[in-house]
Amino acid sequence: MSALLLSGALAMAFTLFLTPIFIRLFKKLEWGQFIRDDGPKSHHAKRGTATMGGILIILATLFGYFVAMLATGSRASISALLVLFLMIGLGIVGFIDDFLKTRNQRSLGLGGWAKVAGQVIVASVFAFLAINFPNRVGEVPASMTISFIRDTPINFATLTNFGAVGVVAAYVLYLIWINFIVTATSNGVNVTDGLDGLAVGASILALGSYIIIGFWQSIQSCFSARIDPTNVYKCYDVRDPFDLAIVATAIVGALVGFLWWNTSPAQIFLGDTGSLALGGAVAGMAILSHTELLLILIGGLFVIEAGSVIVQRAYFKLTHGKRIFLMSPIHHHFELKGWAEITVVVRFWIVGGLLVAAGVGSFYLEWLAR
Q1: 124/128 Cα distance (integer angstroms)
Q2: What is the pTM of this model?
Q3: Residue 181 has what pLDDT?
Q4: Among candidate residues 179, 368, 211, 171, the one with its CA nearest the CA of residue 287
Q5: pLDDT at 326 over 70
Q6: DSSP 266
Q7: Helix, strand, coil: what percent of the chain each, to 5?
């Protein structure tokens, strides 16, 4: 428990007290935000605001997690390291995108397909590693089964019973599934990052839910000596759930400290470095806690934001130029309708919080109902 609390406190202190130093450094390096010409006019005043704040969040998370583990004499688990790998890997993809924007002095960095290619490479390496490294009872971090609150009967591994072709098919489907979760989640957080504090606050809520889920799974782990024998049939077959909770706490702590400087009017932005990294962290938590489909509720605000972009583009093409929203993602629609930026952010946080509550509530109700 001390590692859980210490990781969050250290990460929060890092971003809360060191962010002003990084803001000055980023401005000196001319790492300033560029604004879409077709975006809301009120956003043009934000041009030049320090960006790539995701670097701070990644550094703060690593600092909080590893110092807490050292201070408590604990060892980092493979599950925790995998989440950090996915977070850092996608953060690097985002950094390349942000760096190209600042170097080329334009609001577009990596091309769409180049960014997706980077996400796929990182997600594929993560997927491969996640089904290796068995512990002493043969348990690996991820599962080849599609999960909701627990693993469902849909298991890609059953295809391995059909010879070499079945083995190939099983691993291909598993790879596609993990890539879909990772790219969809990271892009969902990315499009949500359009208003001061919006993506950061939403990520705090989403990742905060995995602190609760990881802590509860550790108490009710099938491999825990503390589990009540009368509840063995309710136990969770998840590897390293408490370590996942520690990592989630470190990220949330880093985000809380960062939000102090990112809230309206923001002095620093996440950039793609931060939004892609946070999407990777959320996806990694869902995959390794075996709650992949529950992510639809826990990351519900990201689903709505990404869905609004998809719907807008599809409708635009089908109707040859007509639009459903004044502008997508949907938070810009409400801005153009006259809502103040802070009003949009707080109301979207409320929506995201309600969806997270529904997700965590569903998780706990499933345990009660078993």
Answers
A1: 6
A2: 0.93
A3: 98
A4: 179
A5: yes
A6: P
A7: 70, 5, 25
Give the residue numbers spanning the domain of 156: 2-297
Do strands 145-147 and 151-155 pair parallel, antiparallel, or not at all (unpaired)? antiparallel
Distance between CA atoms of 47 and 67, rounded to whole angstroms? 36
Give the span between the Cα atoms of 187 and 196, in whole angstroms.
18
Count of helix runs (H) and strand runs (E) in the chain: 12, 2
Tell whether 305 is covered by a domain: no
For residue 315, is it within any domain? no
Measured CA to CA, the distance from residue 362 to residue 296 in angstroms comes to 12
What is the C-alpha separation between 78 and 262, in angstroms, rounded? 32
Grouping H, G, I as helix, E, B as strand and the rest as coil, residue 151 is strand
Residue 242 has pLDDT above 90, yes or no: yes
Distance CA 128, CA 105 (A): 37
DSSP H or E segment with residue 146: strand 145-147
Tell me the CA end-to-end span of the chain in Å, nearest whole number: 27
Residue 227 — very low, low, confident or very high, per pLDDT cuts 50/70/90? low
What are residue 213's phi and psi, to 5 degrees?
Answer: -65, -45
Residue 90: inside a domain:
yes
Using only C-alpha atoms, what is the Rg of the chain?
Answer: 21
Assigned domain for 274 exists:
yes
pLDDT confidence bin for 105, thresholds 50/70/90: low
